[in-house]
Write a structure and sequence with these properties.
Elements lengths: L3 H15 L16 E3 L1 E6 L9 E6 L8 E4 L3 E7 L9 E3 L23 E7 L4 E6 L4 H4 L6 E6 L8 E10 L15 H5 L7 E4 L6 E4 L4 E8 L6 E4 L5 E6 L2 E7 L5 E3 L4 E7 L7 E6 L6 E8 L31 E9 L7 E4 L2 E4 H6 L4 E3 L11 E3 L4 E8 L5 E5 L4 E6 L2 E2 L5 E2 L1 E4 L4 E7 L4 E7 L2 H5 L3 E6 L1
Parallel strand pairs: 1-5, 4-9, 10-13, 12-20, 21-26, 25-34
Antiparallel strand pairs: 2-3, 5-7, 6-8, 8-9, 10-11, 13-18, 14-17, 14-19, 15-16, 15-18, 19-20, 21-24, 22-23, 26-32, 27-31, 27-33, 28-29, 28-30, 28-32, 33-34
Bound molecules: CU-O-CU linkage and copper (II) ion.
Amino acid sequence: MISRRKFLSAGAGALGTALVIPPRRILAAGDKPFQIIEPKPTTAPLTGADKPPVPVWAYHGLVPGPEIRVRRGERVRVRLKNSLPQATSIHWHGIRIDNAMDGVSGLTQDAVPSGGTFDYSFIAPDAGTYWYHPHNKSWEQMARGLYGMLIVDEDTPPDVDRDLAFVADDWLIGKDGTIDEKSFGNLGAWSHGGRLGNWLTVNGLTEPDIPVRAGERIRLRLVNTANARIMAFNFDRLGAQVIALDGQAVAPSSLGPDGLTIAPAQRVDVIVDIDGNPGDTIPVWEVSTRQRLQAARFVLSKAPPLKKRQPEDVVVLAANKLLRAPEPNGAQHIELLMEGGAMGGLREGRIDGRVLSIEELIAKKLVWAFNGDVGRQIKPLATIERGRTAIINMVNKTAFPHAMHLHGHHFRVIERNGKAVWRAPWRDTELVARNEQVRIAFVADNPGKWLFHCHMLEHQAAGMVTWLVVT
Ligand code: C2O
Ligand code: CU
């Protein structure tokens, strides 16, 4: 019998031989070694330096998790090492990804058990602002702090002085200063607007100072990682131009007085020109409620101002070339009736063909339906031939807005409330207001099983989830 020790020494010998060739050559050309991302319980100073740190779950002990950054067309290689007390997975939100790497537990992979690992390896085809998060019990895991940025750099990044992430989250903090765990799975939240928080953080901090210099031009990458809260931001007296939505370039447009609305999971890239005198502070406001909140503030250093950009000197991002325009002639039409929730009048719903009364559904905490089906069914919503355009007509008959997210593709809104919409931006997550009808179109050019769900995570868990097959 080979003793363990012997086995190890044989291994060392083999390694010795391997060292003759440069270690990089062991990897395929252009590949980097796996970056380990380890979600685990830890604490984070969410509520301020004067308060005790809050127990959270975090990737690598950080909220947000480590920023993953690659060039467009480069491979992302991440080894998930699960040190959580629960099974998990990682979904790469907004990446038009190889299906096997999409990270949806129960659909594209099994959830990785506590103590297990999983290797993710995929090409990031489009430049832009993306993010990663669990796709197993995400309503709990994301609320506990699991999310991070995935940034894909343009071939020629725009001319800005700095590129900063602005990761907004709302936490539900109890009286004892820790995450309110009792509210996980609360039927009231699941059947209404989701589990809304009471504490806003930016980059995992309360009202952080963002040090800047007068005259600086900043690319700010905003993402809303909240379970359910639709947020809105404005930059006080600073000029801001939106240059990308959900990772895809848009023609630059100035921010209106209502600020920038960002539904859960959406991203917005803005160019902010820091205008002021050395020593000034300028707030960033969260303005989605009547009571505006200071989300963060720019603090201008004492350094002499940089030369101001001219107003006509705008940043225009190059469009990602690989996105194909939908072709409405010959498209496949798919209906999606959204029903249920509080004040939604749902009487019954189906699970894999079996009809359940609303009482039975409530007992299972399934209170929302797509076309009468509650939760993910064995059968997909539709099967689409690869390369064909699909048009999904979403009709929201519920009393709540929903942030509908399609995996593996970006789509365009082509109609809203019966009116045609021209040249809408590419998105991967679209807000559908109560009583609204929204038609979206995309070329189903990515084969696999793709989830389509509400990104208000309690709604997803309580029934608003379906999937598509691209053959
Ligand atoms: Cu951001 Cu299905 O998820
Ligand atoms: Cu929803």
